[in-house]
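DM from R.C. (forwarded with permission)

"hey, sorry to bug you on a friday — could you get me a structure for this? deadline for the figure draft is monday and I only need the backbone to look sensible"
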Amino acid sequence: MHPKKRWMAVAQLEGDTYMLSAPEPVGETASLLSRLRSRALGEQFVVGFDFPIGVPIVYAERTGITSFLAELPRFGTGRWAKFYEPAQSACDISPWRPFYPYRAFRGASHQQLFDGLGVQSMHELLRVCDRGGDRGNACSLFWTLGANQVGKGAISGWREVLVPALAQSTMRVAIWPFHGDLYALLQTSECVLLETYPAEACLHIGLGHPGVGWSKVRQSDRQRKGERLLGWAVDRPRVSVLAELESDIRSGFSPDANGEDRFDAVVGLMSMLEVILGHRTDGVAGSPAHLHVEGWILGQHSEE
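My reply, with the result:
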């Protein structure tokens, strides 16, 4: 993912109220958590990422992965040496080099990915939480082509943020749901990292399904949904929207290519607050074994 496409929205707790500010560029990923830690002023902080955290269970079974977090530091080394290098041609695809394609070219197809990974269909390359019912399926983790692809974001996020975060020893970092129950982690960890998904987050705050009567891509549609975003904040006594963010919301965010990214950052943040403030559950029912491998999207309920 190009750095210019990386935006974040921040809510800082003042007294008992979360103050929501306008979206801003993420900046250098290597220093992201340390910068957010400074802004937290010694308090705990939670960071949601719009990229998959976990791998499909079918893929895990084929490669012997029983714990995503245990295998994560090994990606890029040993048998996984080329893991983070998207395959340049169909013959380069393998379970140890699963991302494809390296660049857009005529002839690149999902079938080539299926063949290279030894699966029959895209269904096998989706995690349980990627299968969104009426929301529609998310894109497969391993596909790196097109506007909806998430593979490049995962490569950057895992290598540049998650792995270094788990390796350092100066901050207590937990990744939900792999390290346990969200509300327990909120009590015991200085920093909690988790996965969000804008299309899913839209449902959590009452915007409806993107693509059904409206599109996140169009500024006019984002502007039309602005009243609902502001209404959501009004209905949450512990949430306050700062003036610059309110202006962004009312205008439908930027008319340029960053408008959707800025919108997504704000929607993702509001969805996180829905869960943190107790208006919505985290979506995890029990402790199914696949969670240790696949992870989960915050707030997504299995019946939705």
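R.C.: lifesaver. DSSP finds twelve helices and eight strands in the chain.
me: no worries. The first strand starts at residue 7 and ends at 8.
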